[in-house]
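User: Could you go from structure to sequence for me? I need the amino acid at each position, not a summary. C-alpha cells:
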C-alpha cells in the first residue's frame, strides 16, 4: 500500500503541505506536458526521476514533467484512475488491489525490482530469524497484505501466530521501536529506515520478506492507465525510456545523482540519501536471470506467483488483478 514507515527526525511538513510540483521546461513547441505523482515524499527510491529532470532526459524526449507529492500516500492510484494525474509511482501489491477493484491500470516499468519491506529490530531486541518472533510484540501499519506477510512468515517458521502480538502502530513504525512499545516492526524498509537507524547507532537487524517465505515482488512500479497507453503509447514510451536513462546515470554516478535529488529537495539528508542509493543501486535494475534485460523489466512469472499468493490469502478475488498487470512493451529495445 502506502509508504508508511515515517523517518525519524525527518521533517514531515512535506506530506502535510498538499501537493508540491517541480518541472523542467520542454525544448520548444510540441512539448508534451505530463504529471507524475510519487508514492510518498521524495527520497532515494526516486533518485532516477530527479536525475532525469536535472539532466534534461525528459526535455530531450519532448516532455515537460511535473512531479507531485501526495498529501495522502493512499491517493496516487485513485488519482491516476480518475485522470487527475498522468502517471503514478506505486507498489506491486497496491496495483493488484486497484485492479481487483476494477481500475484499468498497468505497471509499465519496475523502479525498484526487489521487496524493500522488512522486519526490523534494534538494540538488545535484535531478531535475526523468524523463529525469534515467538513471544514478541510486532508493530505494523495495519495493512492487510503486510499482516498476510507476517502470517506467511510465521507459518513457514512453524511459530504459532497466537504466540506473537501484532500491534497496529499506524505510521509510527520507527518511533514505536525506539520507544520500546514493540520489539520489531514489519513495514520499515531495509534500504532506508534500517540505514537511518544504523546511522543513529541503533544496531538494526533486518529480515527481508522474500528470504522468509513471502513471494518476491517489485516494491516500486511506474503505473499508467490502460487507455492512455492505447491512445498515447509513444508519449508513455518516451517517458519510460527517459526515466530509464536517468537511472542508468544514477548507476554510473550515484553521488552526482544524489546531489540533484538534494538540490530539488533540500530538507533531505545527503548522508542518508547517498547511503540509501548505494544500498539500493542493484535493485534499480533487473538481476539474476534477468540481468541482461533493460531497466524497468518486470518478470511476469514473478507477478503471477505473487498474485496467486494474494489470491490464496484472500487479498484479491479476481485473477485478472495480476494477469497482464504489467507490461515490458514500453522499455528500451522492446515492443514495436
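Assistant: Here is the amino acid at each position, in order:
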Amino acid at each position: 500500500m502506502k509508504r508508511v514507515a515515517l523517518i525519524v527526525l525527518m521533517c514531515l511538513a512535506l506530506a502535510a503541505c498538499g501537493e508540491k510540483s517541480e518541472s523542467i521546461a520542454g525544448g520548444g513547441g510540441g512539448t508534451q506536458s505530463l504529471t507524475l505523482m510519487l508514492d510518498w515524499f521524495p527520497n532515494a527510491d526516486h533518485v532516477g526521476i530527479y536525475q532525469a529532470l536535472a539532466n534534461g532526459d525528459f526535455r530531450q524526449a519532448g516532455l515537460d514533467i511535473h512531479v507531485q507529492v501526495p498529501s495522502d500516500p493512499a491517493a496516487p492510484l485513485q488519482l491516476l484512475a480518475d485522470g487527475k494525474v498522468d502517471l503514478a509511482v506505486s507498489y506491486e501489491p497496491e496495483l493488484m488491489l486497484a485492479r481487483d477493484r476494477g481500475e484499468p491500470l498497468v505497471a509499465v516499468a519496475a523502479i525498484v525490482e526487489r521487496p524493500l519491506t522488512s522486519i526490523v529490530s534494534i538494540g538488545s531486541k535484535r531478531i535475526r530469524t523468524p523463529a525469534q518472533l515467538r513471544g514478541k510484540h510486532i508493530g505494523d501499519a495495519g495493512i492487510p497484505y503486510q499482516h498476510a506477510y507476517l502470517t506467511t512468515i510465521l507459518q513457514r517458521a512453524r511459530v504459532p501466530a497466537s504466540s506473537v502480538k501484532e500491534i497496529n502502530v499506524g505510521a509510527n513504525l520507527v518511533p514505536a521501536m525506539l520507544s520500546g512499545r514493540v520489539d520489531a516492526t514489519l513495514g520499515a524498509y531495509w534500504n532506508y529506515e534500517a540505514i537511518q537507524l544504523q546511522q543513529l547507532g541503533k544496531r538494526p537487524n533486518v529480515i527481508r520478506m522474500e528470504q522468509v517465505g513471502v513471494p518476491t515482488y517489485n516494491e516500486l512500479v511506474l503505473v499508467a492507465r490502460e487507455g492512455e497507453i492505447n491512445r498515447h503509447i509513444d508519449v508513455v514510451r518516451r517517458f519510460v525510456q527517459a526515466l530509464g536513462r536517468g537511472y542508468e546515470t544514477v548507476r554510473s554516478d550515484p553521488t552526482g545523482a544524489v546531489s540533484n535529488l538534494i538540490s530539488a529537495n533540500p530538507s533531505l539528508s545527503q548522508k542518508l540519501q547517498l547511503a540509501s542509493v548505494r544500498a539500493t543501486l542493484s535493485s534499480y535494475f533487473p538481476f539474476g536471470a534477468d540481468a541482461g534485460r533493460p531497466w524497468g523489466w518486470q518478470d511476469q512469472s514473478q507477478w503471477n506467483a505473487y498474485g496467486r499468493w494474494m489470491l490464496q490469502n484472500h487479498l484479491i478475488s479476481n485473477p485478472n488483478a495480476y494477469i497482464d498487470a504489467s507490461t515490458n512493451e514500453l522499455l528500451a529495445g522492446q515492443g514495436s
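One structural detail worth keeping in mind: The two ends are 33 Å apart (CA to CA).
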